[in-house]
Amino acid sequence: MVSRRKRVGDVQSDQWVLIAPEILKDDAKKPSDKPLFAKLRNPSTETGSMYLFINSGQQICEVKAFQEEYRSWFIGQTVQQDGRLLYATPVDPVFLVLYYLIKAEKEQGKFQPVEQIVVDEEFPSCNLLLQCTQVEKSLHHVTEEKEIGRKKFYKYNKEKTLAWLKKKVDQTVTVLKRSEVSVGGGVQSASFIRIKQEVDVKEEDYTRYAHGLISEYIPEDLRTELSQYLNLPEISSPTPEPPTKRRKISDKPVEADDDYTKYNSTAAKKANSKMTSAQKSLAKVDKTGMKSIASFFSPKGKAAK
């Protein structure tokens, strides 16, 4: 689908090509319940990222963007110069709330109403998370609860959280196996091409791979604790990480400023980033026996008499 936003004082509209769950199409037709883009704190990087609320927040998607050089879109009778491809993937909102539960536990360490826990001056839209029924139904997986006078109070519980995250890892491992995703040394790091699964892949390889995927949505300290909880041994040499961990520079979470055109600067810049792809290809050519183009324009020597 194509998303548009009219700029003030401009006749034309900004347009983006967005891949999103099918439910968004029906949701967009409701005049009183439009999909909503909101800037929230990314629980892994603690920076702002864009999220899409669908069906009054009953489904929340993380918005990322894929970009290649020299790409544009033909939309109707116009050419959209911004060739980024935005895609929205569903995310469990409990991951986004978990950041605030851990923060409240470190700062106060007491039972509180959830609306007093999920507060962020930098990202005030975080209160939209509390409108999601999935958050209310799932808080008991990561907290201790008390009810006083029909009012519920919550406190972060690390043991319950690790058990909940382990279930997430186990579910991810099941999907990886069913989808025949290569998780061993045969993963093609450059192009992420799926190849025939290796016969010597161990259960630990699946678990480590799934742990890497889940780690994209939890704070760094919790990642380490989860690794220990899963009894994953430390590795001396790097092993292939899942594609979401090995992001290309053009495949980053969308930073939610007004025009949705900036990106988080967490990814490292590639070496020789100032060289074009043509220049890089030319640099690899075997130049043995070739003359420099400048030699054809240099003064000729005097002919022998």
Protein described:
The chain is α+β, with helices and mostly antiparallel strands. The chain folds into three domains: 91 residues, Single Sheet (N-terminal domain of TfIIb); 65 residues, no CATH class; 83 residues, no CATH class. Helix content is 26%, strand content 20%. It is built from eight helices and eleven strands. The strands form three sheets. Strands 1, 2, 3, 4, 5, 8 and 11 form a seven-stranded mixed sheet that branches. A two-stranded antiparallel ribbon has the order 6-7. A hairpin with a 6-residue loop joins strand 3 and strand 4. Helix 5 crosses helix 6. The termini are far apart.
Short summary:
This protein is α+β, with helices and mostly antiparallel strands. It has helices spanning 23-27, 93-107, 114-117, 133-138, 158-178, 203-214, 220-229, 277-283; strands spanning 2-6, 13-19, 36-41, 48-54, 59-66, 73-75, 78-80, 85-90, 143-148, 151-156, 251-253. It is globular, with a radius of gyration of 25 Å.
Fill in the keyword field for this structure.
seven-stranded mixed β-sheet; 3 domains; alpha+beta; 8 helices; two-stranded antiparallel sheet; N-terminal domain of TfIIb
Helical percentage: 25-40%
Number of helices: 8
What can be said about the biggest beta sheet? 7 strands, mixed
What is the strand tally? 11
The CATH class label of the largest domain is Mainly Beta
Overall average residue pLDDT: 74
Q: Could you say which structural class the secondary elements and strand pairing correspond to?
A: alpha+beta
CATH architecture type of the largest domain: Single Sheet
Shape: globular
N- and C-termini, Cα separation:
77 Å
Order of helices and strands: EEHEEEEEEHHHEEHHHEH
Task: Tell me the fraction of residues in β-strands, as a range.
Answer: 15-25%
As for the CATH topology of the largest domain, it is N-terminal domain of TfIIb
Rg over CA atoms: 25 Å
Counted up, domains total: 3
